[in-house]
């Protein structure tokens, strides 16, 4: 198992700033060749560290709306969080969605100016849920990888995978394990589930 080194973290940081940055530009910054950067990015994709390359659209430039931040108090009832999270996440006006450790759902959206209350009632339900709405003056979204410690987690036990760990492709997906016994337990359970299917 190859752990992430400083160059991997720097590559991730550069791609986080601009996912369309050419590998030749990244190579110049990190001191590698373009093909070496391409190989590292492919390895990070295979390992599941990079899941996709996306764009970050500033919706304020393409449509209006009232920028609001909503804090919905679900009350820690985990059964209620998933349907609410899905419903909110599917709304076109919602740009960022968060679930707190307490199980509450917070989100940032650009709601239609004249009907904010009606839109929220339709989205959250009439009186089913307590929520607070804050009108936003300015929003800046800056996800950062700087200073973040990256670590893969074991698919079997959840522990951190270090240089002693192993990787395996099972059923077409890449999995990482902290030790050979976790890999063996996972493979055995996977095989039993495949036989029962």
UniProtKB/TrEMBL annotation:
Q: Where is the HTH asnC-type domain?
A: 4-67
Q: Which domain of life is it from?
A: Archaea
Stated name of the protein: AsnC family transcriptional regulator
Q: Which SUPFAM superfamilies match?
A: Winged helix' DNA-binding domain
Keywords assigned by UniProt? DNA-binding, Transcription, Transcription regulation
Q: Name one GO molecular function term.
A: sequence-specific DNA binding
Family annotation (Gene3D superfamilies): Winged helix-like DNA-binding domain superfamily/Winged helix DNA-binding domain
InterPro entries associated with the record: ArsR-like_HTH, AsnC-type_HTH_dom, HTH-Siroheme_Decarb, TRASH_dom, TRASH_HVO_1752, Tscrpt_reg_AsnC-like, Tscrpt_reg_HTH_AsnC-type_CS, WH-like_DNA-bd_sf
């Amino acid at each position: 198992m190859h752990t992430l080194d400083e160059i991997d973290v720097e590559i991730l940081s550069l791609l986080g700033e601009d996912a369309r940055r050419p590998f030749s530009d990244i190579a110049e910054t990190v001191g590698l060749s373009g093909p070496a950067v391409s190989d590292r990015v492919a390895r990070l994709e295979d390992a599941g560290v990079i899941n996709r390359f996306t764009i970050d659209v500033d919706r304020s430039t393409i449509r209006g709306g009232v920028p609001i931040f909503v804090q919905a108090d679900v009350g820690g009832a985990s059964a209620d969080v998933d349907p609410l999270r899905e419903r909110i996440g599917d709304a076109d006006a919602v740009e960022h969605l968060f679930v707190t450790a307490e199980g509450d759902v917070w989100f940032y959206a650009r709601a239609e100016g004249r009907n904010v209350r009606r839109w929220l009632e339709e989205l959250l339900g009439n009186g089913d849920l307590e929520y607070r709405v804050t009108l936003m003056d300015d929003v800046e979204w800056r996800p950062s990888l700087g200073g973040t410690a990256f670590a893969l987690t074991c698919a079997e036990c959840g522990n951190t995978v270090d240089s002693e760990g192993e990787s395996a492709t099972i059923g077409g997906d890449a999995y990482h394990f902290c030790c050979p016994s976790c890999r063996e337990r996972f493979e055995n359970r996977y095989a039993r589930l495949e036989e029962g299917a």
